[in-house]
Amino acid sequence: QVQLVESGGGLVQAGGSLRLSCAASGRDFSNYVMGWFRQAPGKEREFAAVVSWSGWSGNNTYYADSVKGRFTISRDSAKNTVSLQMNSLKPEDTAVYYCAAGRVYPTAAAFQYDYWGQGTQVTVSS
Length: 126
Prior knowledge:
Blueprint: E1 3-7, E2 10-13, E3 18-25, E4 33-39, E5 46-51, E6 61-63, E7 71-76, E8 81-86, E9 95-102, E10 113-116, E11 120-125
Parallel strand pairs: 2-11
Antiparallel strand pairs: 1-3, 3-8, 4-5, 4-9, 5-6, 7-8, 9-10, 9-11
């Protein structure tokens, strides 16, 4: 059974940091790209960041403009985990954050991701 399980969400003040983690299990994800999306109340799910599969020779990370320079995505293929380090958080970063796995890189399109986690809540207070 394929599972993506997110952790690390919580409440933080504006300007603070959080680190999200996603543990993947049920198959070998080394040939999958791993991404993070987020969904704020009343809004559509939006792309945040993606990291390519191991062995990609080019730029292996891609970010939405809204998080570029503040968020850093990384993966540990040996452990089947992907992390999202979030710095300089803003109230508008408040959302449920989802981990996803897909086969297309780079893509910000949610429909191109095959597996999804259940999400973890991030709340940034002003």
